[in-house]
Structure formats: C-alpha cells, structure tokens
Amino acid sequence: MPAENAAIDKGINPEEWTDLNISFMKNQQKRIGLSYDWDREICSHDSRYYKFDQYFFIMMYEKGLAYRQESYVNWCNTCSTVLANEQAQGGKCWRCNNEVEQKFLTQWFLKIKNYAEELLNGLDYVDWPEKVKMMQRNWIGRSEGTTIKFPIIDENRSIDIFTTRPDTLYGVTFMVFAPEHPWVHDWVKGTKYEKKYDSFYNEVMKQKKFERTDIDIEKKGIFIGKYCIHPLTKEKIPIYISNFVIYEYGAGAIMAVPAHDQRDFEFAKKYDIPIRIVIQPHEYELNAEKMSRAFESQGILANSEEFNDMENLNAIKSITEKLDKLGIGHATINYKLRDWGISRQRYWGCPIPIIYCEKCGTVPVPLTDLPVILPKDVKFTKSGNPLETSENFITTTCPKCGAVARRETDTMDTFIDSSWYFFAFCDPPHHELDIPYRKEIVNYWGNVDQYIGGIEHAVLHLIYARFFTKMSRDLGLHDFDEPFQRLLTQGMINKSHPYCSKCDRFAMKAEMNDDSCKFCKTKYIMRSVKMSKSYGNTINPDDIINKYGTDSARFFVLFGASPESGLDFSEEGIGFASKFIRNIFSLLVDPPKIIRKNKTVRDDLINYYMNKIIKDTNNSMNNLDIRDAVNNIIQFYSEITKYKTEGVFDEIYNQCMRTIIILLHPIAPHITEEIWEIIGKKKYLSLASWVEYDDKVLTEENNFKWNLMNSTMGDINNIKNLIKKDSLEKISLIIADKWKYHLYSRLFKLTEKTMNQGEIMSQLMKDNELKPHGKFISQIVNRILKNIGKFSNFSLSPDDESSFFIDIKSIIEKKFNTTVEILFEDEINDKKANKALPGKPSIIIF
RNA sequence: GCGGAUGUGUCUAAGUUGGAAUAGAUCUCGCCUUAAAAGCGGGUGCAGUAGUGCCUCGUGGGUUCAAGUCCCACCAUCCGUACCA
What we know:
This protein is an alpha+beta fold. It is built from 26 helices and 30 strands. It folds into five domains: 1-35; 37-113 and 340-432 and 455-479, Rossmann fold (3-Layer(aba) Sandwich); 143-334, Alpha-Beta Complex (Isoleucyl-tRNA Synthetase, domain 2); 587-687, Isoleucyl-tRNA Synthetase, Domain 1, CATH 1.10.730; 713-845, no CATH class. It is globular and about 115 Å long.
C-alpha cells in the first residue's frame, strides 16, 4: 500500500518504486554485514510467489474456509480500503493511525474462527514472551457459556442468544438487540416505532464503532414494540435496542438481567424496567427496590422454580442441562476473534482469483490457470480501485461455461503474503510446481527455531501466520502445527526528544528546535521516545556507518541494550563503541613487545580466563543475551591488554588472539576479518570453526585458586589504600597454621549434621589438636555459622596453598611493584599473622 | 475496571537451582604528554591507619543458616485491552 500511495503521489509505477526500495534496503543490509542467503530471496510482488497466495485462496475456498459476505467492515478513508479487525485495533488504522469508519460492504473472509480453539491451545506449546501469548489469548477471547432460544411473539423463529450466566435466566426482564440487527428493521417497518427507530439508528451509525463501545459513552436505547417469550417461565419479555450491543458478537442480541449485571441495571433504571432478583447473597438479603447497583457476586438462587436454594455456580450447569433436555438451549463456546476480512480495494496486491459469471455465479479460477497476473494497464485516479480501470483484466470468460464474465477486482490483504513466506524461504517457489513448497524440505527445516519481530505484530502477523500454518498443515503441505517455536520481540531504537509534561506530548518535527511547548508554553524536557518520522528524530543508519563504520554501529546496537528492551541512541554510546573497535584493532595488530620463551603461571591465568570467557560467551550467545556476550568480550579484551604489556608466551597469546577474534566476529565482522588477514591467517575468518573451551581448565580447584588470587590482591589493594602509602617495601603473605585446616574440614563435616553452635563446639573440643585454641575457634565458628554458604567447601592443603602463592608471587609483585614473601604462621611473630585462615592468608604490608 | 510487565549505589543494564551485588558509562584522582586527545592505573554507598564493620536492589512483612532471587501485602511507572453478553 505504501508503494501504491507513493506511486500516486510521485507518479511512479508501484512496481518500479518497490524494486527501487528493495535494492536500496538490500544494499543497506549488505553494508551493515547481515549474512543472508540471497539465493533464497523471494518477492511477494513476483507472480511466482503470489501465484501461491491464489493457490491457498482457492484451496480454502474449496474447503469452505474462504467465503464472501455482506457485513459491516472497518473502512479507512485515507488508505481508501477495508481493514481486518486486527488492523483496526483501538479504532485506528494500523498503517496511518486514522480513525476507521464502519461500512456495509460485500467482502471476502477467511474462516480463522474455525481455528480459534487450536490457536488458543497452541500457545501452550511455543516458547514466546508471556505478554504476546496473553495478547493473543485476549484477542481470541474464548468464553464458555450457554446458547438459549427465546421465541419471538407472533413469529415462528426464535433468537439464539449467548450468555455466560444462564444461572440468572429467571431474572431476565428484557432483551436488547443491536440496532443494525436485520430483524429489527423488519419489525419496526410500518409501525409507530419506525420514525423513532430510524433517527436512533442514524444516530448510532454516525458514532464511530469504537466510540460507541467506549465505556464512558452513554447507554442509550429505545423500546421497539416487539416481545419475545421467556423459554422457561413463558413470560412476555419486551425487546429494546441499544448502542451497547454489538451485532458481530454472539447473536447480536442479549438477555438482560438488571439485578445481576451492572450494565443491564443502569439501562433498566434509566428506562424504568422491572428488576428481578434471582441470586441472594449468603450474608444478607437483597431488595429490588433498594438496590443501588447490580449484585454480580456468588450466592443462592431465588425466584428460579426448581433451582431455588442452589449455589449459582452449580445452577449454571443444571439450567443448561434442563434447556438442553427441552431442546431450547445448549452449552456453547464463543470467541471474540472474528473471521479475517482480506478484501482490499487497492491495486498493488495479489488479485483474488475469482470470476463472476451471470449464469454460474461465483467461480474460482482453476488452479491450472494460476497465476492471475496483476495487469499493468491501470490508471491511478485519486478515487476508486485502479484495477477497475483495466478492461483487459476485468473482462474474462467463465471457466465453467465460457460465457463473458467479470473478474473480482479486490486484491488480498498483504498479510496473506507474510503468512507463509517462512515456508518459502525453506523452498523458494517455482513457477512450474503446482504446490507452494515441497513437504520434505519444509519439514526438514521447519518449524522456525527462533523468530524475531516487533510486539506490534502480536495480534496481526503472528496470529495470521499461525492460522496459515495450521490451515496448510490440514491441506497436507507439511506436518508441524506452529510456525515459530521461540519468539523474541525486539525493542525499538529510541532517542531523547523534547517533551511537554503538561500536554503529555512530544514536539513534532517542525517544533523540535523550540524551547517550549507551542500550546501551553511549558518548557520542554528531554524524554526518550521511539524514533519516528513525524517527530523528526530519526537517525539514518547510513550516516552512522559513514561516520563511525559498520562495526562500531553493530557493536553499539548489540552492546547498548538487550534485544528485548530497546535502545536509547546516544552519541556517547556510539563513541565508546567506535573507540573499542579502534582499540581492539591496535591490540591485535601491534605485536607484543615482550615475548617470553618459558611458560609461567601468568600464562595459566590468562588461559583460565580465556576458557572461562569462551564458556560464558557461548552461553550468552545461545540465550541471545548478546549484551552479556559483548560484556564478556570487553572484559577479555582488558585481560589481554594487561597480559600483553606484562609480556606473553607465544603459544598462549596466539590462542587468546584467535579466541577474541572469533568471539568478536559475529559482532564486528569486518574488522575481525581484516585483522585475521593482517595477522597472517589463511582462508576467511567467517569460515573458521568456532572456539571451544577446555573443561579441564575450569576445574573447581582452578576456580578456587584464581578466585583466591583475585580476592587476595583485592585485599592487598584495600589495605594499601587505607594506609595511604605511596610505595611498598614488602608484602608478606602468611599461610594459616595446619590445625586451622584441620578445623575447617572437621567443621564442615559437622555442619552437615547440625547447625547448633553449642553442639558443634562441644564436638570440636573433644579434639585434642583443636582444644588449645578454644577461644579463637568459638569466634570463627560463630562467624562461619552465620553464613555458611559464603564459605567454599573446597580448600587446598597448607602446602598447596603456599606453593600456589609462590607460583603467583611474580604476578602480585608486578602488580604492586614490590617484593612478596610467603611465610607460614609459625615463621613470623606478629599479631596480625594469626588472623590467617585457610583460603585467606594474612597480609602484612611494610 | 481487567490483564501483563517493570522497579538494582548518579545513569544504562547483568544477576541461573536462593550461596561474597557484577559490567559499562559518567564523574574524579594519578601516570604518560610541551599541551590536548587517545591510552594505562586507582577511586566512584558509608565509616575506618590492616585484610574489617555497616547500609543498599520500589515499600512493608514472612520463610531460611543464607533472599536482588521464594511467599504475602502495598506503592509507583510503562504497555495492552475494554460495555464481549
């Protein structure tokens, strides 16, 4: 439709305009480095593709899933076309945001309602955001209730109304029909009510549909002089019409129970209709005259013949059973979901393959005659469907009798195209095939493992595509039930923009440089809002790419926020990204200044980090936590930087480089590919195998050791800051006495049995080795028991701990630019020394 | 009204089966530099001349040896939806 509008505005052919845009977008996508398999490119305006839109339509027509009906439909004046219910949410056109009107037209519909139950249940089997599932559940709007026949007086037909509250059936005191219900029109004809009805009808029709169903709008109605009969009591019940009853839902008429429904209550009060109580609350008694609002809670039935004294929730079932037995009602399930109106009065779309013959009526185009090609000899006038201007197209012959016939000129909703394109990507359509795609290929690839799209399609594309998947499965085209197994709804790119808090509005494009609101003169504040042309706050990706490069743009977007939460565009953010990209280049391309021949513990450390980071990054990537993955890479980058300046061991350093290049490659493909070549690697990086981590490096012992090193260095740093010494003479690390290790192992064993401190202490004091240290132990035990989980179960022996510190001595020395000595507790006479504990050496700084 | 989500030191975000609150930005100090930028290092909840103590994940309770995480109630914000019989 934008193509057609642009064509009208600019006088270009829509096809030309579409192709132009496709090549522009393709270029941009290639520039930003998106790796698509372009061999699978499909275009919905290619007759090889839309042929199968028509195929699906005809298959549905033959199965009775496509039908033509005259009804009230949503009409958008600016788009000059009909819209489906899903496309007119909140009474506004999904494309142009214009208020939609109601028009009475003959249109093609698809019976999506036939799949309502399955569409609802299928939601339990997909891994989608709860929010989207809720939106679909609400949209489908299943409700269980009862259909009840109310015979019309003086006629032999009856109205089958739907109610969820058959327990209140005895409380019905009036009926309400939608004003546009066709029966109503006949009933008032030639009666004294006709005039009143006509003016009321016109008044209601003038209201926009969504205004009419606004809760604040006044509930208006009139009596139309007609009655029906209560199916059980046989009482005469007056029929009203009112604006609050919607023709499309249920029967287009309701039974009104003013005592137990607030809306009915208000209506009854207004028009002086009797109120009959049929449910009494447990705690008190209602009085019809004194009621100020309806009683909608649970209670016990009254005035309900044999159902009196029954709990109302039980009565729902009992009354329905009785109606069923008498043949005047039955349990029913109703859905809010309406059938999908797919006719569009526009040129640029897929023609509906139907021919109207005077003799044979509505005739589908035979499958062998597909595709029905969209003609090019059309005139774009400002009004009406351009297709109607192509005589060649309209005039045809009837496939059945050969007589001159006329083609349908409505085209299909473009959502039809997007309802099955994911199958087409598996097996791009071929003109010569008579099916849209081959079953074994689609079954092999499908269903889609991970789908990404905006939340705005929650009850549009995402419901249509599910319907199509089930429908085409039933045509035998493939075997699975749901199109998209995992769904991620990505956020939008926002930008801060002038906002008036008083008027609750953002500055429009023309006002965006003003200081204050043009309506109330309040000063604008800056607030984040989605990018949009009307606000004039859009950023052209090309500008960003030109200024910072593709990789910086990608890095910024991926690191800026999680995919779900959207991103605030900012200059600082993109600046950081661009700095990082530059830094990583020089880090990897400039060779290290110091290269060691011997392997040291420093190399073990960076190797440990490397493996840990591969593991964490892989996890994050798999969960699509791209931001976390990037965070890990940034950390690894700074570790490598430190490692490089301290001096490297060639083999390990090369592994680190390879790892970070590969990890970063999906984020910043261009620069990493470049670096790959510069450092002399053969073949493309994009074809290199992904990095694996070595589980043997990530043992509990190693985790413990490197944590021990980090926390010890943290402690040293802490003390250093505290004593405000500029340069350090010496650091002594004192490893705890052997008996403390013995204590730890005894203690942790005991805590498996009991957490009682007294009991634990008395057990410990039976140990002769520990007994002399009783006072110290009781303090330690107290501290440990307060938060046992904080203490690792794993520990090294005193000798292992000491030799580990000897190993990493050089790292600490380098970091603090001083000498480090490792001692045992009994080797030094300092009262600070005896604070040493297993896994926590005492630190003395000189 | 109904439904859903969110709330984390200044900001943006991580935080898995409960087990020592992480990153990045910002700001700031230092190094480097003739200088700036870039880069590197320290600090960025409070207190402290010794590895510690205390506070803090919207508020208030609860469960637990242990709660950002589990349970209950409330508040705020955002989104969806609305006479659906």
